[in-house]
Amino acid sequence: MDFDNLGETVRDFVHEKPLISTMIGIFVLLFFASLIIILIQTSKPEVPTQTFRKEPFTADAKLLIPAAPEAEKDYYPSRTIKNAWTEEDIEPWFTKPDEETLKNLEKANDAIVSDIIGAAP
């Protein structure tokens, strides 16, 4: 194949169809530009290696332990814990349920139990 003949064929094509040849040229340039960009983006950057020296710790003065917060010192030791509530403590918070409420609760619990047992073989 003669390269001079190939060159003349390309020149004739460019002169006969300038729009198509321009579009082909632009696509070729964009292809090579994107290829270069992809190669640059995928190359790993060089990470400088760091070397650390291991040195044993030697204290030049006595280590001081920081004081704990004052709230913990005052609050926790002075707190008294009750093992059980007295009747006076219970009265403001507890109300006895009436018969109707207890029956509704019993029906609701029976329905839950029957759903569980009804699914069992």
Task: Tell me what the structure shows.
The protein has 5 helices and no strands. The chain is mainly α. It starts with a helix and ends with a helix.
Proportion of strand residues: under 5%
Low-confidence residue ranges: none
Largest sheet: none
> How far from one another are the termini?
88 Å
Using only CA atoms, what is the Rg? Answer: 44 Å
Order of helices and strands: HHHHH
Q: How many strands? A: 0
- The tally of helices reads 5
The best one-word shape is elongated
Mean pLDDT: 82
**Global structural class:** mainly alpha
Helicity range? 55-70%
Give a quick rundown of the structure.
The protein is mostly helical. It contains five helices and no strands. It starts with a helix and ends with a helix.
Task: List the topology elements.
Blueprint: H1 3-16, H2 18-42, H3 70-78, H4 87-90, H5 99-119
Features:
121 residues, mainly alpha, 0% strand, elongated
